[in-house]
What does this fold into?
Amino acid sequence: MNDMSPPRRATRRLDLADGRVDLTHGAGGRAMQQLIEEIFRPAFDNPMLARGDDQAAFDVGAGRMVMSIDSFVVSPLFFPGGDIGSLAVHGTVNDVAMSGARPLYLSAGFVIEEGFPLAELQRIARSMGAAARDAGVAVVTGDTKVVERGKADRLFINTAGIGTVPAGVDISGERARPGDAILVSGTMGDHGVAIMAQRAGLEFETTIVSDSAPLNGLVADLVAAAPGIHVLRDPTRGGLAATLNEICHQSGVGMRLDEAAIPIRPDVLGACELLGLDPLNVANEGKLVAIAPAADRDRLLAAMRAHPLGSDAMVIGEVIADPHRFVRMATRIGGERIVDWLAGEQLPRIC
Amino acid sequence: MKHLDEYRDAETARRLAAAIHHEANRSRRYRLMEFCGGHTHAIFRYGLEDLLPSNIEMVHGPGCPVCVLPTGRLDMAIRLARRDGVVLASYGDMLRVPGSRGQSLMKAKADGADIRMVYSTADALKLAQANPDRHVIFFAIGFETTTPPTALAIEAAARARLDNFSVFCNHVLTPSAIAAILEAPAVRELGAVEIDGFLGPAHVSVVIGSQPYEFFAEEYRKPVAISGFEPIDVLQSILMLVRQLNEGRAEVENQYIRAVTRDGNVRAKEAVSRVFELRRDFEWRGLGHIPYSALRIKDAFARFDAERRFDEPYAASLGNEACECPAILRGAKKPTDCRLFGRACTPETPLGSCMVSSEGACAAYYTYGRMREAAQ
It folds into this structure.
């Protein structure tokens, strides 16, 4: 694509302290070239991008490839535990990894509002680059568009990712079977509450940070420990409740959960009480749900807990036969209730 | 978590449930109405009905501010929001409530009306201060709990001589609604409601105190137990009502002593009486027109009254005729008695107000309780 064509040296360097993105930075001319040269290419630094072609070319191994895409419109752009850049890497890496795949390459598209500070753009690009290196993936192709002031809210990022699935691994939301164990890799609701706490109008002090993290390393360990895992999914928007309901519908099963087993940080629980939210509906960006035959349960739990991103892992319930496809939960005080999808939008622009 | 865990303790719940089973007289039924949507939500969220004997029936009352707001008032809010230069500041759960002819604030927002979600009256006030060229109307709803903050916001706006802020006042009064359930002619016509006792509201009672309920206990011989919102609170209050009924007593008892006094919050009540006065008549969804059941802004603060400032008239409500919200709000029918429930009317596509708020009986049934129906 045009954005990454061979370098034509600009006369003066970008003002990365006080400068702002203007419409010329998206116009395909020298200014856009300079933006790519001085911000994106150093941040993402890899040979495929450095070639400056309109596309990335790479060899394809045998077996199955997976592909996923996600757009990021989170507000605010910077939040405790991450920013839109690291989130854009983690979100897509995790979606690819939930098939059991090893994520390899990402694309990155930027829609920037005129007037956006170059310093913030650089900070976000560097954060993306660091997140990609941390996850062991490369951003190999990209695109930049600038829109007039008021036509977008500061910055939107789109990433797509591809990866390859090891032979013998068949992980899908339609594979949950009655008797399977349901595990989560850690505490629920951290990301959503961290974002909400940052939002204007919700002024309370919290120490909660987003759990945004790349899960491909954890997934690789889980697949090695129990190649027969049936389902992996990261409970992002809609939280654990939405994810489990999706799986029930795909697989035609029900679930029974134990409320007391679901890990939730006390400060997240407190913030949810204050905001009138159910933590099971709140987004996560660095947690996964694993569903596997009961025989694999203990091995899987041990593998999760051995990984730094799974130290709070718990077995939270089991898959049952249920034509209604309900997710039921034994409540802490001895009753039972349905855990349903959330109706409507709990809080927009959480990722 | 401190101050929450002790009210959600499984062992305490088991002991209370055992006491209720032991003391409830098997030869009679106990129909207990929890007035407040907060209690309805707690009962379903914690599955409390599973812990009760089958002859204790919880009847879900109308204490959900979103649910009792008639479509006519919602239509007014939508018309106000569509005016040029107006920002309507609203609690988020009002956005999807269906008004007349399938309209809602959410649809008005998509059409271009400037509607913002706020979490408090103070947020709305800040919005007005930050946008001096726009007129911010706060869509005020709720029972006695939310009224004092609205009063304080109006006083603050008056002190700051803020000319671009007003309130669309829909504050309603709990005791009037309980009286309407017990005796209003509309209720008699539409089917008598046999209620043996009431779980009294938690947060409302923090403000108004326990005294206003004494009238119901004396006049109607109905016991009242003012209850906190945690599961242990609710179970303990049910036990208190069972004991009163077994002993033939009809008193106001206060389970929520950690927050409720007989006289309530005097300063909050004073703030309310400085700014508000009784409205001669107010329409409630489900309960019809109830005299002196709501508040309006006093003449001294008329310029902060959106209804007067914009001269917005009230038009009678139009609802879906098949919707059973009116009977459900009176406790005369269950959500599952409605033929729209779970079919045409779901939390994603609510036709009636009881399906919108998480405190509404239909939404609670749908979200937390429908497996019970499915199992039957």
Q: What stands out?
A: Chain B has a mean pLDDT of 89. Chain B touches chain A at residues 1, 4, 8-10, 13-14, 17, 44-51, 95-96, 118-120, 123, 126, 231-232, 346-348, 358, 363, 366-371, 374 (CB under 8 Å). Residues 1-321 of chain B form a domain with the Rossmann fold fold (CATH 3.40.50.11740).
